[in-house]
Amino acid sequence: MCVMHDDGIVEKRSAKAGECEMAHIDSLWAATANDHRIRPALEGELTTDVAIIGGGYTGLSTAYHLAQKQVGCVVLEQQQAGWGASGRNAGMVLTGYKPSIDSLASKHGKETARELLHISVEGIKLVETIVREHRISCSLENCGNFDAAFKPAHLEALKRNQEFMQTNFGYETYVIDKERMKREEVNSDLYHGGLVDPHSYSFHPLNYALGLADAAEANGAVIYDRTEVTGIAKQGSEFLIRTSSGHVRAQHVVMATNGYTTSLAKSLAKKMVPIGSFIVATERLSREAVERLIPHNRMISDTKNFLYYFRRTPDDRILLGGRVDFNGKEGDALFGQVQQSLIEVFPTLAQTGMDYRWGGLLGFTLDFMPHIGQTEEGIHFALGYCGHGASISTLMGKLLAENVCDPLREKNSLERLPIRTVPFHSQRALLLGVASFYYHFVDKYF
Fold first, then answer.
1. Alpha helix ranges (H) inside 152-273
2. Are the C-beta atoms of residues 317 and 281 closer than 8 Å to each other?
3. Contact present, 85 and 321 (Cβ < 8 Å)
4. How far apart are CA 181 and CA 183, in angstroms?
């Protein structure tokens, strides 16, 4: 991987963790990232219209859309643009949300569910538009996704959702049985068939983040890497944002930290639970081997609550994520469990080497839905993607930019969803303990 400093010096660096303090983590995506430059840290003080905290998809998209409106903005990223979940996810650009659309209709009504579905599709279209207009090299492909039924009852639930979507919204998906699944989608005995959604995409997640950062800067946004925000204070009609080496005065603040939200924004930290998710990627396989395992190159996840998600990669590996952790601590034992999950899905890979392993934090809310809005102090935010943020986060950035520029604009159904506070201290510990037990035993075996 080559990185270019702002002084024009190009430095060849390994993407391996620990060899460079500010390098992206030891992921497949970091090892195959496009050449990019290391941006300087903020030093001293500056004044701008909007200060954006967090350099992932949400923050970068907010900056991109604000800059298009000729609104002055800066992005303050503690590590490097794309360093968090935006550069570490599985690269699955999916329609929908963690809850199924028919379950959202039962809870919120059909018209709200219809709009929520439309919003998720709009997010994918926005990603496609940005990639095309700025010629971002990120392997974007309309490959579709496959929901693999872990139990026979799950296949029936997928059929009900498919019928609901087709009948009420004209949204076309289709359900297949186990034998067809093994021939066409997932050559595994673990599942009982599933649902194909041809509308989803795949991409190289870090390269998309890097390209989005470049596009934001090309429009006039300013991005600072290695700039930790240490405090936010409201002073009259403006905010003072203190950093590790300077400060920013801004009329507006956007918090775009999702799973990495800390007590810096206490009211937001209480709205969500950060959960670790971990991934392994095999050594390179033959094209024949990966096509035999996943013939149509879909993005695949199963129907367990704590699911496995897996795919082929552009360089012919199998990537799988499937071990959540409520402490976010990595280690050999944890990644060994992820590898065993991969072997559970594809036993023929038992002797296959693993070239990459990495993890990061996801942001989960109590209703498993993303949320957008403003805190009582007036800080704009979007968070809680629950593992479905690859495209909706880009759309959230566009909505955040619109909220800054037009606070009285009419809000859509997603923006109107109320966000609840997560029980903390002993209640939160109990909540996570129950969830951990559910992951290890109930969800997998019953």
1. 152-169, 178-184, 205-218, 266-269
2. yes
3. no
4. 5
Check pLDDT > 80 for residue 418. yes
Domain assignments of the chain as residue spans, ordered by start: 1-38, 42-141+200-270+366-432, 145-198+274-364
Q: What integer is the mean pLDDT of 405-432?
A: 78
Centre a 10 Å sphere on the Cβ of residue 306 and count the other Cβ atoms it contains: 18
Q: Tokens 């496995």 appear where? A: 308
For residues 417 and 410, what is the distance between their CA atoms, to the nearest angstrom?
A: 14
Q: Give the separation between CA 53 and CA 218, rounded to whole angstroms.
A: 19
Inter-residue contact 396 to 58 (CB < 8 Å): yes
Residue 143 CB: number of other CB atoms within 10 A? Answer: 20
Give which of 43, 41, 29 is closest to 1, Cα–Cα: 29
pLDDT in tens, 241-255: 999 899 999 999 999
What crossing angle do the helices spanning 110-133 and 152-169 adopt, rounded to 10°?
90
Tokens 């909706």, located at residue: 392
| Position 257, amino acid | T
Match 């929908």 to its residue by tokens: 96
Which of 416, 330, 338 has its CA nearest to residue 373? 416
Does residue 211 contact residue 136 with C-beta atoms inside 8 Å? yes
The CATH classification number of 42-141+200-270+366-432 equals 3.50.50.60
Tokens of 272: 């969500």
Domain 145-198+274-364 has CATH 3.30.9.10: yes
Q: How far is CA 411 from CA 372, 391, 401, in A?
A: 10, 19, 13
Model pLDDT, residue 321: 95
| DSSP SS3 for 9 | coil
Bridge partners (DSSP) of residue 238 are 235
Pairing of strands 246-255, 309-312: unpaired
- 298, 198 in Cβ contact below 8 A? no
Tens of pLDDT, residue by residue over 277-286, are: 999 999 999 9
The residue behind tokens 């991409």 is 203
What six digits make up the tokens of 368? 């498993």
**Do 42-141+200-270+366-432 and 145-198+274-364 fold alike per CATH?**
no
Q: Which helix (H) or strand (E) holds 31?
A: helix 28-31
Report phi then psi at 4, rounded to 5. Answer: -115, 125
Beta strands in 90-186 (DSSP E): 92-93, 145-148, 174-176
The amino acid occupying position 222 is: V
- Compute the distance between CA of residue 62 and CA of residue 444 in angstroms, rounded to an integer: 39
Residue 331's identity, in one-letter code, is G
